[in-house]
Amino acid sequence: MRERFANHFDPFVIPFLVGMAFVLGYYLIGMIRVILQLPKADRKRFLLTLITPKYIWMNIRDIFLNCLIHVKLWKRNRVLGYMHSSIAFGWFMIILLGHLEVILFVPERIHLFYYPIFFNYFVAETEQTIQGSLLMFLMDFFLLMILSGIAIAIIKRFASRIVGMRRTTRLSLLDQVGLYSLWSIFPLRLLAESFTAHISGGSFLTIPANWIFRQFLGNDLNALPTWWAYSIALGVFMCVLPFTRYMHIPAEMLLIPMRNAGIRIRHPRKGFALLEVYSCPACGVCIDACPMSVRKVNCKDATVYLNRQLRRGNERRIEEISDKCLLCGKCTAVCQVGVQGPELRMAQRARRKYALSPSYSGINVRPMAAAVAHGAGGDSGGVLYFAGCMTKLTPSIRRATTSLLDKAGVRWQMMDPEEGLCCGRPLMMAGRSEQARELIAKNAEIIRASGCDTLLLSCPICYKIFKEEYRLDGIRVVHHSVFFEELIEAGRLKVRRNGDLKLVYHDPCELGRGCGVYEEPRKALAAAGELVEAGKHHAESICCGGSLGSLTLGFEQRRPMTQNALDNLTVADPDQIVTACPLCFSTFVHAADRPVRDIAEILDSQS
Amino acid sequence: MDFGFKLNPSSAVNLDTVDRARYDRLVQLEPDALTCIGCGSCSATCTAAPWSGMSVRKVILGLQRGQDDEVDSMLSRCMLCGKCTMVCPRGINTRHLILTLCRLNRKGEIVR
Asked: Residue A496 burial (CB < 10 Å; 0-12/13-18/19+)?
């Protein structure tokens, strides 16, 4: 081992140093800004987790698994998983090994920022020692790994279908500069190291390359230009990084600890939301996932484009995208980073100013409360069934549910037999959460007056908000699909199984992705007939298109989405389509070519 | 171009005291409102109707007649449940129509 240059410096490191200083400075300022923008309570909570051992371990593990290994992506698509983890993990290992080399061989140079990166230029190492040959082998190994990843990336860019993506994002100009500079970094590193391999040593990749180059490029003068090119590629990449999608690399490292600390989006442009927007890698997985994308014009309304417009501050488009979304949550389910598209949009909707704000404080709920209190006969306990406003349009669900309750011998009463209030979820979705709180208070008053111990809901839209936002101290909130499954399990509800009846279950967005209820409805249905699965199911089920989440989508625009969801449901040719949501039910029932039924109806007809 | 004659501006005197600025602006923003046939499906399905008298049909009518107070009191009871949109035979996005109306002040300007 010997150092090649007495002054330990060469001007070619300057582009790298400039880029590095710029990106670190930008990241540091951005990080402080995001933390300062958090509400005070959130900020305190986040900073506390940074010094709690349990959270420190969790953060390190999650950053390692998600940012370097890309575990979630591996589970989804192995080719894409390999591509990302080879580049991220390989690059990380090269940087790590570079530092290791400096520490082992020239520890007095560790303060030189560029030494680990350009080690082979400044230090001539021999592969004769076991240390040297091992490190050089590892260096070449990880470089080869990165190069294979880059090769897949190039193929993907020009033929995304090969790696299983139908659509991918259109890159902006700066994104393209970032992309091409990233692609060129590693081939240039290979060239640079190959040109100096006969002086500084190398391994299975660089020594043969060096031999080939020397056959027709005889002298060492080619070495310096390639090192310059390598450094410039690094410099360009880091200088454009903050303005490209590659900002997700540093942003995600802050996002993961914040998410672990339980921070939520409170403002569409500040704090945690800003971090989510910058963490979006613009991979475009959400474009294929979005139920609106069946219409080509709506491809530009996917979450990836919302993030891009939020970064650009294009107000007109931000409003348009925010209002159009169905809030089905599928983009979040498939997102590798977990960008909460629906929450970003709801926060954006909440910023809107209105001349007229509804007020429900004047509503007199005393008669409604008195009716349920009277119905219970004064004694407490029993089930209170809140059918919800949507079942007014689908009375069959109401009828089937009450009939099942009677068959199982459950003591129950109805909260809204004639008139009732809305649960507040539609208001929340429209961004008017303050008004929703008023309704929540009114409904909670009625429920408490009834003295029930279980609140039964047949609408997932209601179920989500009752579960998350209501404080009902001790009253169990349960969706009817779960409740009936329990009754079947306990033997209180006898269901005859009809093996010839092929049923497919549609996961409603609010019940599945919204509340994580997937298996109970399926178990209940399996007791009534033969259950088949749709093409896309569970967390990836496709929204029926009727969602209240969308403010601007009209009837005609929703129809192709409904048709697409139905096509997905009928791949296994079921006899009947079953859902557990009155809104999905009434959307499907007008468009389907076979009977659509609620889970309660199926169970009721077979018991 | 000079034809040697011109059309006089209308000299009709509008004796209507109703200020339809809000309705005109609504029609501009939500042209679908013009296709309303007043069938009342929205009123029949309204969750808020039993205790507030809310009705989208009446809101549109009230705007044309200048019954601003009635319109505002009805709008302030809507819970945005969206059933009126689901049943509208003309496919009017009534839920968005209500939200748009809430954004307009009485002069028909969007508040910012």
From this structure: exposed
